[in-house]
Design brief:
Layout (H helix, E strand, L loop, with lengths): L1 H21 L3 E8 L4 E2 L4 E9 L15 E15 L2 E14 L3 E5 L3 E2 L2 E2 L3 E6 L12 E7 L3 E3 L4 E9 L3 E6 L7 E16 L2 E14 L3 E5 L3 E7 L12 E7 L3 E6 L11 E2 L2 E8 L4 E3 L4 E10 L17 E5 L3 E7 L2 E14 L3 E5 L2 E7 L4 E7 L2 E6 L2 H8 L8 H5 L12 H37 L7 H20 L4 H15 L7 H8 L2 H15 L8 H31 L1
Parallel strand pairs: 2-9, 11-19, 20-28, 22-30
Antiparallel strand pairs: 1-3, 3-5, 4-5, 6-9, 7-8, 10-12, 12-15, 13-17, 14-15, 16-19, 17-18, 21-23, 23-26, 24-26, 25-26, 27-30, 28-29
Amino acid sequence: MKFYTRYLFRSLLLFGALTTLAFAQVDELSATVDKNPVLADESITLSVVAVGDTSRDAFDPTPLNADFIVGRTSVSSQTKMINFDTTHTTVWTTALIPRKPGRFIIPSFTVEGKSSAPINMMVLPVTARQGTQGRDVYVTTSIDTKETYLQQQIRYTVKLLLARDLQRGSLSAPTLDNGEIRQIGKDAEYNDIVDGKRYRVIERTFAVIPQKSGTFTIQGPVFEGEVVQDRQQSFGFFSRSKTISRVGPPQEITVKPIPQNYTGTWLPSDYVELHEEWQPTDNQFTVGEPITRTLTLTAVGVDEAQLPEINSQYPQSVKVYPNQANTTTIEKDNTLIAQRTETIAIIPSQAGEITFAEVKVPWFNIVSGQVEYATLPERSVTVLPSKSDASLANMTPPQIPTQTDVISAPAPKVGLNTATPQVSVNSKWWSWSSWVLLFLWLITLAGWVIHVNRASRPTIKESPVSSAILSEKKAWKILLNASTKQDSNVIVPALNNWLNALCNQTNHSLAQLQRDLHHQPLNNEINKLYANKFSPSAHQWQSEQFIATVTALRKQLLGKQKSADTLAPLYQSK
């Protein structure tokens, strides 16, 4: 029985709730504004009141977007009961800011079948305010030019003027369709007197970069905040505040398209510079030793994304490994300054004079309206042979005196009046020298006999070739060990030492060894090593392919050396 009673009670509650929802309706709907007429930069508070039961989400302010900047909508509900007569009231409050002066109509709104009456609004221009009566809070805007080129920076300045104490507030950025806007610099704050009234001024600067040609309107920023009311009406430590909204006046701009005679990446600016640095700084370089060239492109009044690549050309006698370019944008004197830096590693492979071609970057001078070029002049440098090549070239064979030199030597003159004591001394010296020479000759003869006896015996000598093989094996182990470390800074010198040992050379550069071997697979692997060392794509190098290439080269050259060693006794016996 209790179960059926509980079930019947719950059913009655549910039926009552559904009945209440079925009969829920709005008895009255009205819309009002707090002021009419209004200045173009002032906000309006629109209040829509619904009497009766309704949803809090029933109001839609979307139709207002055409003529007004629509702020946040707040919702409040109130319920009154008098003599068991219940009244529900819902109020929607929305802040509106006119987009421009003129006459406008706030349309009627419909909620739960009830509609409000439309409101005729008069929006006056800012200049229509009373002559000497200054406003307490307002926003001004200005631009440095009304005609600009596509992607050229426009300096947009906003000033917030306050004649009252500000408790809190926020200032949005201006808006432009088909444009980029960013704040530059920090806010400036100072005091100023306008129309005889003292204001606290907060100034903010923006960079506006249009991305499409044509005529456009930059919509002013919106200020929302709370200002302190008359301090004489304050109570103790608490002051009454008032919520206000202000909007800056719009600015019309005309954006010109790219001139037809311009070719290349579009770069509008009033100053562009191209600079280069070399490491080492002198004009003499060495084969196989890397050179670092740094190119820097600087442009005023543009963003870093607008800077083009620097097209630099290089001769066939050098290997080029460019690094990833770095771009940045800085702010100076309320102006954007963009920079692009490209670093290139250059390795000469041939000695001689090398000429680097002229570098040109086109840009459009917005001051003169002409196409100009940022250039780097042609540069010639001298590439010296590697140190090992220079030392071999400077070596000269020792000069052996010829028979002509011996005959042309002046003979000692014998005087007719030579004294007798001098002759006896010379004779004595000659006798002693004869005995010494005889003794030395006997020693030489004995040494020759011993040498002949030893030479007749079979002996095993270590040839220079076997010594070179031992040196090559040691260098080979070092190269294999370095290859496992995946570090080009360790592999390149180890490869150079091993190739010197394999080719029976001393201190030859890697570039010279490449020219002597003419082994294209090895050249490809060396190029990959240099790319791994000087370019950002270091992860692309694979040690397995490198080891396979040098192993095949080692097998080939050692096989040739072994064949040459086998044939050597046949040539020596002739």
